[in-house]
Amino acid sequence: MAAARDLRATETAEVGGADAVELAKRHLIQPWPFAGSVGAEARALIGEGDGIYITDGTGKRLIDGPAGMWCVNVGHRHEELAKVMYDQAMALSYNTPWYTMNAPSAELAMRIAGHAPGDLSHVFTTTGGSSAVETALRFMQFYNNVRGRPEKKLILSRGGAYHGSTYLSASLNGRPRDRDWMDGADELVIKLSSPDPFRRPRGMSLAAFTDFLVDQFRDTVARVGAEKIGAFVGEPVQASGGVVVPPDGYLKRIRETCRDNDILYVSDEVVTAFGRLGHVFASGDVFGIDPDMITFAKGVTSGYFPLGGVIISERLLEELRRSNHPDAMFGHGLTYTSHPVGCAVALKNLDLLEEGVLAHTREVAPYFQAQLKTLEELPLVGEVRGLGLMGCVECVADRESKDPLQLDKDVGKRIDAHCHELGLLVRPLINMCVMSPPLVITREQIDDMVGILREGISRTMDDLRKEGVWRG
């Protein structure tokens, strides 16, 4: 023990000049690690950011293709956001939300409610997306307990979904490999098909595919019983599942079915909110639906401070207030709920969005989608899809079978490695490359990004041919 303490003391004393990569290998556990390297790996070191660019540990300047993790919406090194953080921390750095409150959180709740669809008028803030989804689900459970329906707790989710890393939110996930080695609350979750038009059965029209999805939803409700299903949770666009844009009309029809069966519709806008699709919220402005709850995070502070939240329908709160259990407590809260610094940053970030970033996003998004679409000329690319400033390039062994499994399963990582060398950070997802740049990106920068991605894919095709993995 003494020797270990002495080693740590020596390392701490040397941190100023030590190699961060070596320190990470010794002490830092990265997210989503493999057992064979857990606690003993280092990932690409990022030193600084500026606008849409980041600089890696070697000094190479890269376009931040994923905008951090779908979140650096107004770009890196925004001085106004940094100043707000400093000013608020110097005024009030923290207050307990259990028996005190702060002004920025109240103002932020009002501003967010003003952008929300329908009667979503009250906000509960969290530390991020996972805790936002967890809060929505726990609220559903509380709501049904108070209303005398303790059996109405099952949750409908979908293949390809990603909703978080906390126990309950992660139980909803439906991406390949997410749950291979992880436990979950499987007894509470029912999985439905992914609304991925690219993977619909061969020969099936989009209209027929939409009917299939809706019929499956309705049949599931009828089979399980609406009296047992508490909520449906769905991303308007399945983000980490590969930017899956659902067929037209699908979400509206699912919303109607939820309303008809008294099932709470939770729209998970952790990715799509705060500008990614050109609006503060996509549920109403893009897809024409009014959920019972909306979860958000990421872009609410442009990633400058950890913050998330849930917007809850006034109807649900009024039903609780009218119940026969006025003393029932929603026993849920976080140390950093309504954090004053996070809320102050979110307010300034919302100012920036309203004052021009949203309009800019709507203006450049069609160009972004059109330029990405040109990558379908490459024989390795099966489909390019997206909406707003989020897109996905899906690589396939051949376009007839659409089979990614014959390819090297890490083809996305291969493309990312080439792109990194060329000046672009990509988010690789098995056989897919996901792009979601900062919303302030220009047309010229879009050209640079797509040009690098094209070259990265071309180099990967050459590699796969040489290795005999793919013939093209």
UniProtKB/TrEMBL annotation:
InterPro entries registered for this protein in UniProt: Aminotrans_3, Aminotrans_3_PPA_site, PyrdxlP-dep_Trfase, PyrdxlP-dep_Trfase_major, PyrdxlP-dep_Trfase_small
Protein name in the entry: Aminotransferase
Family: Belongs to the class-III pyridoxal-phosphate-dependent aminotransferase family.
Keywords tagged on the record: Aminotransferase, Pyridoxal phosphate, Transferase
PANTHER family xref list: AMINOTRANSFERASE, AMINOTRANSFERASE CLASS-III
Record keyword Transmembrane helix present: no
SUPFAM superfamilies: PLP-dependent transferases (SSF53383)
Naturally occurring in which organism (per UniProt): Mesorhizobium calcicola
Short name of one Pfam family: Aminotran_3
Cofactor requirement: pyridoxal 5'-phosphate
PROSITE patterns: AA_TRANSFER_CLASS_3 (PS00600)
GO molecular function, one term: transaminase activity
Keyword Transferase: yes
